Amino acid sequence: GNNSNRYPGPHLKTLYSRLAELYAVDQDQLLITLGSDEGINTIIRAFCEAKEDSILICPPTFSMYETYAIIQGATTLSVVLDDNLVVDFDGLQKTLAKSPKTKIVFLCSPQNPAGSALPFERITNLSKTNQNVLFVIDEAYQEFSEEPSLILAIKENPNIVVLRTMSKAWGNAGARIGIILGNKDVISILQKIVPPYGIPSQSTDAVLETLTPAGINRVKKEII
Question: Closest by alpha carbon to 13, among 34, 27, 29?
Fold first, then answer.
C-alpha cells in the first residue's frame, strides 16, 4: 500500500528523542519541521505582525528569509556584509537601536556563500543587549565550522534560536527535515503554528536510518 499519507506516529517520537540526544538538549527545546524553509516561515509567522514588524538580514545571504517576510507582510531591513564578507555587528546594533519594530535577526553561521563562522561571543553579546529581538542562527553548515554551535547558548539566552538541517553534512536532502532548537517557551509558541502531521513518515524513517547510535557517535564530535 501507499504509506506516504500515514501519520508519523511512534517514528516521529523516536526522531525527537534521537535528535535531543544528538544535540544534547531536552525534547521540549526542539521542533522538527518540513525542511528549514518551513522553520523560517514558522518563526516569521509567530513573531512578526503584518505591516508592522521587520526582520533584519545580512546580504548577500539566503534569500528565503526575505521571501517569507514578504509572504507574511513583514518588512526586511539589511546590514550588508563588510568588504571581507563578514557580518558587521556594530551595524546590526545601530540598526536595532533605531528600529524598535525589528523582531527577528537572521544570521548564517558559517555563512553561505562566504563560509566564515560568526564569533560565538559576538552573537551572544548582541542577543543580551537586545532581549526583545529573536536571533535566529542558521547553522545549516555548522558541521563544517570551527566555532562552537550556538545550541550551547540557548539555555542561557532565551532569545537565541538555532536552525539545523539533516540535508547538508548528513546527506539526507531528500528527507527535507529541518530542526529548530531554542528555549522551551519559544518552541511551544512555534509548535502551535506547525501542522502536527506535517512530516511524512518516509522522511522520518530516512533520517532515523542515519541516526543510529553508531551514526550519532560518528558525527557527534563534529556537531557541537
Answer: 27
Q: Give the C-alpha distances (Å, rounded to integers) separating 26 from 19, 23, 184.
A: 9, 9, 9
pLDDT in tens, 166-217: 765 555 555 678 899 999 999 999 999 887 667 777 778 878 877 877 777 7
CA distances from 104 to 69, 118, 215 (A): 10, 17, 34
Phi, psi dihedrals of residue 165, rounded to the nearest 5°: -140, 155
d(CA 204, CA 202): 5
Residue with cell 564578507: 85
Of 160, 161, 157, 137, the C-alpha closest to 87 is: 137
Look up the pTM and report it. Answer: 0.88
Share of the chain above pLDDT 90, in %: 53
Whether residue 38 contacts residue 68, with contact meaning beta carbons closer than 8 Å, is answered with: no
DSSP conformation class of 115? -
